[in-house]
Structures are given as C-alpha cells and as structure tokens.
Amino acid sequence: MSGILYLHGFASGPASKKAQYFARRFAAHDVQLQIPDLAAGNFSQLTITGQLRVIEQAAGGHPVTLIGSSLGGYLAALYASRHAETQRVVLLAPGFAFPLRWPEALGAERMAEWRRTGYLSVYHYGEKKEARLGYQLVEDAALYEDYPPVAQPCLIFHGKDDDVVPIARSIEFAKGKANVELHVEDSDHELLNVLEPMWQRIRQFVLD
Predict the structure, then answer these.
(1) Is the dihedral of CA 3, 201, 149, 67 positive or negative?
(2) Cα dihedral sign, 179-142-158-205
(3) Distance CA 174, CA 156 (A)
(4) Sheet strands side by side (includes 180-185)
(5) Across 117-126, average pLDDT
(6) Number of H helices, E strands in the chain
(7) Would strands 119-124 and 129-134 be described as parallel, antiparallel, or unpaired?
(8) Which DSSP state fits 10?
C-alpha cells in the first residue's frame, strides 16, 4: 500500500485535532499516517510553492494517498494534479479558490495595508498565539489555479454550514466529475462532529 500523508490547514500544524484523530485511527490498522509541518517551521514566510515542496519531500517520489484539510485540501488537489503517482485524494472542507480568500475576508483597505507593511497578524491555531504572515503568500498564491484538475479518485467532505470556505466551491469542483465523490455534511468548517462517519468512509476508500 502507498504511504498516506495528512496535510493540515492554514495556521495549524501536525498536532491538530483532526490530524491526531486520523493518526490514531490508522494506527489501529497498523498504518502510519505522516503529518508534515507544511510551514517547515517558518510560518511568516509561508507560500503555496513552499508547502508543495514540503509535500514533495515527504512523498519522496513514491505513490501516496493524500488527506488534506482546508488549505491542506487545496494543496492536496494541487499536488495530485501535478503528480500522477498520487493514488487517491481525500479533501476535508478543501480551500478551493484560495487566492480569493484574502480579499473576501479582509476587504480592499486591509489588503492594501498588508501589501504596504509586508506583514499581517493572524492567529496561529497550532502555536496558540498571534503570528506574522508575509504578503508573499498572496503573491505566490496568484500563480495557482482555483480548481486543480485532479484525475485520481477523490473523496470530499464539506459542511453545509461552513462559513470559512463556501460549500459552493466543492460543489463547483465536483460538478460533472465521475472520479469525485462529494459528501455534504451537517457540520461547519471544522467537521469535528462528523469525524466517525467520515472515518468509516475514508477507511473503505483508502484501506479496502
């Protein structure tokens, strides 16, 4: 069986609740879940390109299954679309159209201030404190497509009450694609209340 990588979300890390939940679940089946730090210890200089490089290093050129949450889901889709050896993709509230996130969330005035100063203060959930984020993330993200053309078998879970990434983006991504299975959950962006049913389908999708 291929290796399995879990890709955490924005301003998160390997210790996230979902990452550790799935690590325990896979361990019960004698499968190790790799959970790389996508920021590579340098959150302030975060870019999409840099995170894809971390995934590439973790995969080591081998066939992999990717499980990605939020921004990690978008990264999983980007990586799979560029690496045919990727076998399966599981996306949890994937952050499609990531470059649009910042203008939508911040507005024109704060975006202009971020560009002028070079840094934005954001809450880092992994470190549990405020952290600086460089504007290079926005500039680099503009180089990537909103909806990567994933050809591999793809399983998506998205909460209908997600107020971070609109569920419409997963619906748009899945539309007309026979390789994509979309589950609309009675949940929010975190999906924490549906971990067990998600795991049952993920287990079948990945291990059976």
Answers:
(1) negative
(2) positive
(3) 9
(4) 33-34, 3-7, 64-69, 86-92, 154-159, 180-185
(5) 95
(6) 7, 8
(7) antiparallel
(8) T
